[in-house]
Sequence to fold (75 residues):
Amino acid sequence: MDTLETLRQRITELEAANLAMREIVLRVAEARMARDSVTMIESCLNCSLKRGGEYGYAGKHTDTCVVTLARQLGF
Fold:
């Protein structure tokens, strides 16, 4: 059984995680792919991901991209 102090510490940890996620979620909500109307290549506005054209559709967001971070948090 958890002690009261352990539970308080866990609440503090969860509140900190929630605060960190809030910023990421807001940024991901705004994350859109930009499309060049001439080449039809889509680019992530947060990392170097490019899709379409010679790049194909197999690319991934970088490890530091907010989209990747949000996915790691379950969004």
Notes: Helices lie at 4-30, 66-72. The CA atoms of residues 50 and 56 lie 8 Å apart. Strands lie at 33-35, 42-44, 50-51. The first helix runs from residue 4 to 30.
